[in-house]
Amino acid sequence: MERTVAIIGAGVSGLIACKYTLSKGFHPIVFEAQSSIGGVWSKTIESTKLQTFKGLYQFSDFPWPSSVTEDFPNQHQVFDYIQAYARHFDLLKHIKFNNKVVGVEYEGASEAEMQSWSLWGGTGEPFSSTRKWKIHVQDTKTLSTEIFEVDFVILCLGRFSGLPNIPELPPNKGPEAFHGKVIHSMEYAAMDYESAAKFIKGKKITVVGFQKSAMEIAMECAVANGVENPCTVLYRTENWAVPDYFPWGVSLGNLCLNRFSELLVHKPGEGFLLSLLATVLSPVRWCISKFVETDIRRRLPLAKFGMVPKQSFFEHINSCLISTIPEKFYDKVEEGSIRLKKAPSFSFCKDGVVIDGNEAAPIETDLVILATGFRGDKKLKDIFVSQTFKDCIFGTPKAAIPLYRECIHPRIPQLAVIGFSESASNLFTSEMRCRWLAELLDGKFKLPVIKEMERDVEKWDAYLKRYSGGYYRRSCIAVIHIWYNDQLCKDMGLNPRRKKGFFAELFEPYGPMDYVAS
């Protein structure tokens, strides 16, 4: 009997999930709320480029075309590459565009019955002949609704789109007190390039945030308006942004993204010897972090502008907070077309923005752009109809989202999440997870009992809290992505050692092409 798999989202993760479920003979239906594939890459800021070296950000069975010679392709090149992948594997015919999933509902088992299960789904199997998911879908053009019944659900919602993270402010101190305009970076990215350029031209602009999008928007504003109308950037904490990925001429991948670098950290589920080795080698980890930090401070005037982070580079890369800084960003700061202001908290007034504690000097502003990120966890929670499943998937604010192998919630049957946990290359990691999930659906291996999966989730949560600090909810596995892939390979019955030779295995970075299916 043909099994139907609902895939929610046609971004990179959704497309890969579609390809791998097809390869196992399943019938995928991809629901996409927009009119295009590509997720975040379908609408970006004009200056956006890939933040990851393209060799890491590629499909293992569909390499970049030779015509793309840049190491960090621009938005158009990335989007074209994703579209070419979808065409090559004939995925578009499985996608229902302009179809927004407003809820998923599990039927066939009571909550009391599910609570008594010791195995995932009661049997440990990914499918059931009597239990199904109902997918509530709204056509975004006609607003009509339809319900689809499916055997399995894969949530590829994306955590960097859809639901903006808007700062909560006291009454009369929010955007309603401001006489100018307030938008989120998502709205700015959705504009066509000509409209965006006109929108910011000649305005006094304040950008809130200091991650990748915030810096790119600030650069575009500075180029458009110069020192006559400088762009003010409000940031809460300083972050390590790198000018490139070659500190002191050494590849960052050789320093932080190989098996040797993973020996320097305590990994979830490691044995005594690896734990002892991580303790003994911890000074090496500190030295590598300082090696990178000194190069950044040498090349960027961080100290001059009070932008030296308090946390180490190692903590930031463990939190997936590292990004490349736009070219000549600090040149714009030097000339005065970008102004950096630390603001642990802020509020609005009639004429602009007030940094709390400095109410006497409001920042006069015409436009505020909130580059404050997204609420990926809430978006994941809100997709469920059942309050029990909402509570399960969201977990507690004091822990990371509780997913076994960062894919499966032990107490939510016949459902997987792809693309929520972050890594050094989200495309690479999503493909490994989709391969793993396809083998699970195909019956090549079974999941452990629920209690064992929950214990494993707790170990990974402890790792995240130990090395990511307050950013553990980002579920970043960048620094131990090889260790993570090892677990997936062992589950699938594959050899996790993919290099040729001892030194290559220990010191060369791992990438998608190391996991090409034989």
Radius of gyration: 23 Å
Alpha-beta classification: alpha/beta
For the biggest sheet, the summary is: 5 strands, parallel
Low-confidence stretches: none
Number of helices: 18
Shape: globular
Strand order of the largest sheet: 3-2-1-7-18
Could you tell me the number of beta strands? 18
Strand content: 15-25%
Q: State mean pLDDT (0 to 100 scale).
A: 95
Q: Percent range for helical residues? A: 25-40%
The end-to-end distance, rounded to whole angstroms, is 28 Å
Give a description of the structure:
The longest helix has 19 residues, at 450-468. The strands form five sheets. Strands 3-2-1-7-18 form a five-stranded parallel beta sheet, covered by helices on one side. It has a five-stranded parallel beta sheet with strand order 8-17-9-10-13. The chain has a three-stranded antiparallel beta sheet with strand order 4-5-6, with no helix packed on it. Helix 1 runs parallel beside helix 15. The two termini are 28 Å apart. The protein is built from 18 helices and 18 strands. It is an alpha/beta fold. Helix 2 links the parallel strand 2 and strand 3 (95-96). The radius of gyration is 23 Å and the shape is globular.
Comma- or semicolon-separated keywords:
single chain, 518 residues, 15% strand, five-stranded parallel beta sheet, alpha/beta
List the helices and strands and how they pair.
Layout: E1 4-8, H1 12-23, E2 27-31, H2 75-88, E3 95-96, E4 99-107, H3 111-115, E5 132-139, E6 145-150, E7 152-155, E8 181-184, H4 185-190, H5 193-200, E9 205-208, H6 212-225, E10 231-235, E11 241-242, H7 252-256, H8 259-262, H9 272-280, H10 282-299, H11 313-318, E12 323-324, H12 329-335, E13 338-342, E14 346-349, E15 352-355, E16 363-364, E17 367-370, H13 376-382, H14 387-394, E18 415-417, H15 426-441, H16 450-468, H17 481-492, H18 502-507
Parallel strand pairs: 1-2, 1-7, 2-3, 7-18, 8-17, 9-10, 9-17, 10-13, 11-12
Antiparallel strand pairs: 4-5, 5-6, 14-15, 15-16
